[in-house]
Specification:
The complex is a heterodimer. By secondary structure, chain A is an all-beta fold. Helices cover 0% and strands 59% of the residues of chain A. Chain A has no helices and eleven strands. In chain A, a hairpin with a 3-residue loop joins β9 and β10. By secondary structure, chain B is an all-beta fold. Chain B has no helices and eleven strands. Chain B has strands at residues 5-7, 10-13, 19-24, 31-37, 44-50, 53-56, 65-68, 75-79, 88-95, 106-107, 111-115. In chain B, the strands form two sheets. In chain B, strands 2, 4, 5, 6, 9, 10 and 11 form a seven-stranded mixed sheet that branches. The chains are: A mainly beta, B mainly beta. The A-B interface holds A 4, 30-33, 35, 40-43, 45, 48, 50, 86, 88, 90, 92-99 and B 33, 35, 41-45, 48, 55-56, 89, 91, 93, 102-107, 109-110, 112.
Chain lengths: 106, 116
């Protein structure tokens, strides 16, 4: 089946810093979605982005489907951004990466 | 619009006991998924339903896990008998039918299972 790799596995930032999270996938996909899992375990939709670039406030995402990767950018990070960020790809069913655990320190 | 509802939120059982989890998807969503998330890992798909039919259950341990979606709306996931390694959060997600699907999944808050 399709492989989804996320990097880095862990990221520690000071409040106000910027970061880039990466998702590589091993095959063509129909859809790609970024999620944030908050400390209570709830998975929150961030972006549905099979291709192109989208922005929502301090977050933006870019997917280059032909090169099989997607990037999530977080600018001016806040402590509330802490949690685990997952990339999920759809090649028939939604497969998740192992996630990037982000800790933003005040 | 109400989200995906799951219950119970927490369950503690002893190994070899049975447990059932319930999910009510967003109204009108034809596709329903059950995922298992073990601590420190990403969610793993257990089973996918389209209306009341199973689309993919290749990763469901069928010797102990079962799931049904009889009327194409809510769904139940059962584990019998439970093992220690079944300790995880069980997540339910739903999506509209393929014709109207933008590709987004919507998740419930999950049911956290601890097997002692």
């Amino acid at each position: 089946g399709i492989q989804v790799e996320q990097s880095p596995p862990d990221l520690i930032l000071q409040e106000g810093a910027n970061s880039t999270l990466r998702c590589n996938f091993s095959d063509s996909v129909n859809n790609l979605q970024w999620f944030h899992q908050n400390p209570w375990g709830q998975l929150i939709n961030l972006f549905y982005i099979p291709s192109g670039t989208k922005q929502n406030g301090r977050l933006s995402a870019t997917t280059v489907a032909t090169e099989r990767y997607s990037l999530l950018y977080i600018s001016s990070s806040q402590t509330t951004d802490s949690g685990v960020y997952f990339c999920a790809v759809d090649s028939g069913d939604m497969r998740f990466g192992a996630g990037t655990r982000l800790t933003v320190k005040p | 619009e109400a989200g995906v509802a799951q219950s119970p939120r927490y369950k503690i059982i002893e190994k070899r006991q049975s447990v059932a989890f319930w999910c009510n998807p967003i109204s009108g969503h034809a596709t329903l998924y059950w995922y298992q998330q073990i601590l420190g890992q990403g969610p793993k798909l257990l089973i996918q339903f389209q209306n009341n039919g199973v689309v993919d259950d290749s990763q469901l341990p069928k010797d102990r896990f079962s799931a049904e979606r009889l009327k194409g709306v809510d769904s139940t996931l059962k584990i019998q008998p439970a093992k220690l390694e079944d300790s995880a959060v069980y997540l339910c997600a739903s999506a509209p039918s393929k014709r109207r699907w933008t590709g987004e999944l919507f998740f419930g808050e999950g049911s956290r299972l601890t097997v002692l």
